[in-house]
Specification:
This protein is an alpha/beta fold and about 350 residues long. The protein has two domains: about 15-270, TIM Barrel (Alpha-Beta Barrel); about 280-325, no CATH class. Helix content is about 30%, strand content about 15%. The protein has helices at about 30-45, 55-60, 80-85, 95-100, 115-120, 140-145, 160-170, 200-205, 220-225, 255-270, 325, and strands at about 5, 10, 20, 50-55, 105-110, 130, 150-155, 180-185, 210-215, 230-235, 290-295, 310. An eight-stranded parallel sheet has the order 5-4-3-10-9-8-7-6. The radius of gyration is 29 Å and the shape is elongated.
Amino acid sequence: MNDIKIGNIIIGVNHKPFVIAEMSGNHNQSLDRALLLVDAAAEAGAHALKLQTYTADTITMKGAHTIKDVNSLWNGKELHDLYKEAYTPWEWHKAIFDRAKEKGMIAFSSPFDETAVDFLESLDVPLYKIASFENTHHPLLIKVAKTGKPVIMSTGVSSIADIDESVRVLRNAGCKDIILLKCTSTYPATPENTNLNTIPHLAQLHNCIVGLSDHTMGIGVSIAAVALGASVIEKHFTLNRADGGVDSAFSIEPHELKALVVETERAYLALGKVQYGVQQAETKSVFFKRSIYVSEDIKEGELFTEKNIRVIRPGDGLHPKYYTTIIGKISKKNYKKGTPLIFDF
């Protein structure tokens, strides 16, 4: 699989994780708050800021459905009302994108219908994200693929056949750079239903860069994902969960986002390569391994016993593997207590 370059950032298995801060509806319908979210994401070190581009009318219609699930964060809400509360006004996009670029971040969005693609093209976004609930919306996939820009696609609520078909649709329509994100589309998700072991399989199956769209609480799951090969991490974020909002309950705060950036990079750096033997960084530490030392004065002609030799630190004496061989042998010279034992037999 090939690396993908977006601006000055390279995304790939041999590069540090690409961390996306997902604003979603956490602006709470305030442009000022949206811009503060951009600033906070940049300060935390996020590499990209992502919006969602839709209106209530482009995603559903009034009266289509009311959520009736006591376990849902949005129980009792009518879908149209929920999306009206959560959407990011299109007239805000340019100001938000411009602020993100000023702060050194990549700015892009998830379009939810074809008109959103046209709008985002007018803002010259560098890539697109396909949300899990849209990943079988083939007309949208074709529209996005024809832009020729990289596509990140979440794979929640999808069978293996769905994902395969959608990848083929994107590639056949001209998309050369695809990143697939493992995703569990529950809000919040739990570690138990995240199934991170899918990540390396997803990469192998589609020969592409992979990552995680993480809806769990905290950052532990994302760090684990990097250890399994995730090159991209997407996470919802907010200024303060206590402020409320449609997605606040499963969003991380700025200090957590900063920790996510730092710790996912550490996880990536720690992967390294298959390595055995003494590393350069360990050469001084070899001295502190154990060896055989004289624990009581020994005169020439005396036997080595469990009372007069011990295996201790440091490693100046014989290797501990010779201990049982030496016991019962005759010393050929005098030894002082505290002396490393060397071959003399």
